[in-house]
Design brief:
With about 650 residues, the chain is α+β, with helices and mostly antiparallel strands. The protein is built from 17 helices and 34 strands.
C-alpha cells in the first residue's frame, strides 16, 4: 500500500512538473510577462517586417510576406513604405538599430522617391516592383497610398530634423498637387488616376493624358488623413479648401450602448478609424462638437460587441477576447470586414489581429486582452489549411494577418502578414506606451495649420511648454531660462535633460542620448535656471525638454556642450567600484579631434591588468564599460589602479580607480 502511494505521489509530481514547464516556457505562454513586455515583443516582430523584408537598395517594402519563411512579395506597397519610415524611427528610438542604420535606410528610400519612383504630379503608383521600382502590373496612381507614404516621410523628416532627410521629405510633400487630383466640378479629391481607361475601376474621366477615377474621398473614412495633408499643403492645397473636409458625408448611428458613432459605409472596417490617428493626435480636439478620438473608441467597442453578439456555431472565432473586423486576408481572398452601426456589414468569423492591435491607442484594456488571448490560445495551433504545421498564427513577423476557426475547409490561418497591418499594430502600441509618434508628428507646422483651417478646436490643454532656446554650458554649470506651462507663461511640471557625445539637434539624437537622473524641478516662466554638470559628464552635449501637467512636451531645446580644450579622461563611475555589486563601471573620455584610442589599466607598481584598443574615434565624448575583469577574464583584486588614456600612441591623461569587494 505504501509503495502504491509513493508511486501515485511520484506520478502527481511528474504531472505537476510537466505542466509547470509548459507554463514557464516563455515560448508557449505569457507567464510572468508584463503587458509592457508583451507589447514590446509584438512591436519588435512588427518592426522586423519593415527592416528585414525591405530592399535596401531602394527602401521599398513588400505588400506582404510569408510569416514562416520571411519571404516578401514582389510587389511593394507605397503605403507600407510610409508605415515603414515611421517604424524605422521607432526601432531606432528603442535601440534596435543604430542612428546610421536608420538614417541611411530612410535617406535611400526618400532619394528613390525623389529621383526614380514612377508617378505623376507628386503622386505615385499604389504598387511598385520591389526590385526594379517600376509600376507593378496595371495598378493606379493612388492618392491615399501616396498620402500614407508622405505621412511617413514627414514623420521621418521631423525625427531627423535639420538633416537631408527633412529637406527631401519636405520637397516630396510640396510636390503633391492636390488640385491636379480634383475634378474641376468637385470639392473632393479623386481616389486616383491611370494612364489607360479602366471602366471597371471607375477610371473614366479623361484627364491630363489619362483617366481620373470617378470615386472621391467624399465620405468619412481613412481619407481624413489625406485631407489633413492636402489642406496643410503650402503649394497645392485643394480648390475651395477646406471644403473637401467640411462637406464630406458623415453618417451617424448607434450599436448597443455606443451611440452617435460617425462611421464609414460600406462595412465600417476598423482601419478607417485607426489610420489617420496613428499620426494625428485628436485626443483633446473636436470638430463641430465631435471628438474623433472618442468616436474611434466607440467604433472599436461597438466592433467588439458585434463580434460577441455574433458568436455562434458558424462564427466560432468570436468572443469577448477574440474580436476585430477590418480589411484583411481571408480564406477566400482579401476582404473588407466591418461592424455596425453601418447596416451593410460583412463578416464570416474571420478575425484580424490588426483590428485590436491597431486600436491599442483607443481601447488598451480590451485590445491588449485580445492580443494576449490570441497569442496564448492559438500561437501553436495546427490549422486545417496547413496540416504540416508550417503556418502559425505567431510567426517570424508576429501575428498572421487573419484567422478563422470555421471556414469551408475547416480552421484557417493566413500564412502571410501584410505591411500596412503590421504597421498599424506597431504605431498604435507606441502611441499607447510613449505617445512618441503623436508627439513628434504634431510638431510639424503643416499639420497644426491644417487642423486649424479644418475647424478643429482644443477641448483641453494642447499648448506645449515653450522651447528653451538659450541653453548654455557655462564652465561646470548648465544655464537656461525656464519656459512656462503654456508657451512662456505659468510653470512647467518637469524637465527631461539628456546628454550625448555629439550635439543633440534632432529627435534621432535625443533618443540616442542618456537621461540625467533627478533633474531640477521647473521654476516659473522667465526664471534663470541652473544645473551643476557632474564631473563624469564634462565634455558632453546637452538638450532639454519641458513637460506640463497634461503631458505636452516642449520642442527640443538648442544643444550646448561643456567645452574642453584638450583630450581628457574622466573619473570612472561608480568609484569606488565593486564588481560584485555594480557589475560594471563606466570609463568616459573626451577627444578634441579624431584619433586612435587605447586605454590601459595598471596596478600601482606598473603591472598591466587590461588593455582596450578602441581604434579610430571621432571628436567628442566616448565611454567603455569595464566589468572588473583582467585580460585573463578574472575579477581583479581590491586595490587602487591607474587608468591611462593614449591617443595616437601618446599618453594624454590618467585617473586612479578604486576597486573594493
Amino acid at each position: 500500500m505504501c509503495e502504491k502511494v509513493i508511486k501515485f505521489e511520484f506520478l502527481l509530481l511528474v504531472i505537476f512538473l510537466y505542466f509547470l514547464f509548459l507554463i514557464l516556457d516563455s515560448d508557449n505562454s505569457l507567464f510572468g510577462m508584463s503587458d509592457d513586455e508583451f507589447l514590446d515583443m509584438v512591436q519588435r516582430k512588427c518592426f522586423d517586417y519593415f527592416w528585414n523584408t525591405a530592399n535596401p537598395d531602394n527602401g521599398l517594402i513588400p505588400n506582404k510576406a510569408n510569416n514562416s519563411s520571411g519571404t516578401g512579395s514582389s510587389d511593394a506597397s507605397i503605403a507600407a513604405v510610409g508605415f515603414g519610415l515611421t517604424a524605422i524611427c521607432i526601432g531606432h528610438s528603442k535601440g534596435w538599430i543604430s542612428y546610421s542604420e536608420a538614417y541611411n535606410r530612410i535617406l535611400t528610400t526618400l532619394n528613390f522617391f525623389k529621383n526614380s519612383a514612377p508617378g505623376i504630379s507628386g503622386f505615385y503608383y499604389h504598387y511598385l516592383d520591389i526590385d526594379t521600382g517600376e509600376r507593378y502590373n496595371n495598378c493606379e496612381v493612388s492618392t491615399i497610398d501616396t498620402a500614407l507614404f508622405l505621412t511617413g516621410a514627414l514623420f521621418a523628416g521631423q525625427y531627423f530634423k535639420g538633416t537631408q532627410i527633412e529637406t527631401i521629405a519636405d520637397e516630396l510633400y510640396q510636390r503633391a498637387n492636390w488640385q491636379w487630383m480634383q475634378n474641376t466640378s468637385s470639392d473632393f479629391i479623386s481616389m486616383g488616376w491611370k494612364p489607360e481607361e479602366d471602366n471597371g475601376g471607375g477610371f473614366t474621366i479623361t484627364w491630363n493624358g489619362g483617366y481620373l477615377c470617378i470615386y472621391e474621398w467624399n465620405y468619412y473614412n481613412e481619407g481624413m488623413l489625406l485631407d489633413v495633408l492636402a489642406i496643410g499643403s503650402p503649394t497645392y492645397p485643394p480648390n475651395n479648401s477646406p471644403n473637401c473636409w467640411i462637406n464630406m458625408g458623415r453618417p451617424t448611428g448607434s450599436y448597443g450602448a455606443y451611440n452617435n458613432i460617425i462611421y464609414c459605409t460600406p462595412n465600417n472596417p476598423l482601419f478607417i478609424h485607426q489610420y489617420p490617428q496613428l499620426w494625428v493626435d485628436l485626443r483633446r480636439r473636436e470638430y463641430n462638437s465631435v471628438n474623433y478620438y472618442t468616436n474611434s473608441i466607440k467604433a472599436t467597442l461597438a466592433n467588439r460587441q458585434f463580434c460577441i453578439d455574433q458568436k455562434s456555431s458558424t462564427n466560432k472565432t468570436y468572443s469577448s477576447n477574440c474580436w476585430g473586423l477590418t480589411a484583411c486576408d481571408s480564406a477566400s481572398g482579401y476582404k473588407v470586414y466591418g461592424a455596425p452601426p453601418c447596416s451593410d456589414t460583412n463578416h464570416d468569423g474571420t478575425v484580424a489581429p490588426t483590428a485590436a492591435g491597431g486600436s491599442v491607442m483607443f481601447t488598451p484594456k480590451e485590445s491588449i486582452a485580445c492580443l494576449k488571448y490570441i497569442y496564448n490560445t492559438y500561437k501553436d495551433k495546427v490549422w486545417d489549411n496547413d496540416l504540416s504545421g508550417h503556418t502559425k498564427l505567431w510567426g517570424k513577423y508576429g501575428f498572421a494577418d487573419a484567422f478563422n476557426l470555421n471556414t469551408k475547409i475547416g480552421s484557417w490561418c493566413d500564412p502571410y502578414v501584410l505591411g500596412i497591418d503590421q504597421g498599424a499594430i506597431l504605431i498604435s502600441i507606441e502611441n499607447y506606451m510613449t505617445g512618441m509618434v503623436w508627439d513628434i508628428f504634431m510638431l510639424i507646422p503643416y499639420i497644426e495649420d491644417a487642423l486649424k483651417e479644418m475647424g478643429f478646436i482644443d477641448t483641453d490643454d494642447n499648448t506645449r511648454p515653450g522651447q528653451i532656446t538659450d541653453l548654455k554650458a557655462d564652465g561646470t554649470t548648465l544655464k537656461w531660462t525656464a519656459p512656462g506651462d503654456d508657451g512662456y507663461s505659468g510653470r512647467a511640471t518637469k524637465y527631461i535633460i539628456k546628454y550625448l557625445n555629439r550635439p543633440i539637434n534632432s529627435f534621432a539624437d535625443w533618443y540616442d542620448a542618456d537621461t540625467i537622473e533627478d533633474p531640477p524641478a521647473p521654476s516659473s516662466a522667465g526664471t534663470k535656471e541652473e544645473f551643476e554638470i557632474p564631473n563624469s559628464l564634462k565634455g558632453c552635449y546637452f538638450a532639454i525638454r519641458a513637460i506640463d501637467d497634461k503631458g505636452n512636451k516642449s520642442p527640443l531645446s538648442n544643444s550646448t556642450g561643456s567645452p574642453l580644450s584638450s583630450h581628457k579622461l574622466f573619473q570612472n563611475y561608480p568609484n569606488p567600484f565593486n564588481p560584485d555589486e555594480n557589475k560594471s563601471s563606466v570609463l568616459p573620455y573626451f577627444l578634441t579631434q579624431e584619433g586612435n584610442v587605447k586605454l590601459y589599466l595598471y596596478t600601482l607598481n606598473g603591472k598591466l591588468i587590461k588593455e582596450w584598443d578602441e581604434g579610430s574615434k571621432t571628436s567628442g565624448r566616448h565611454q567603455i564599460e569595464w566589468d572588473g575583469k583582467n585580460k585573463n577574464n578574472e575579477i581583479v583584486s581590491p586595490g587602487i589602479y591607474v587608468l591611462i588614456l593614449e591617443i595616437n600612441n601618446e599618453v594624454v591623461d590618467e585617473k586612479k580607480i578604486v576597486v573594493i569587494r
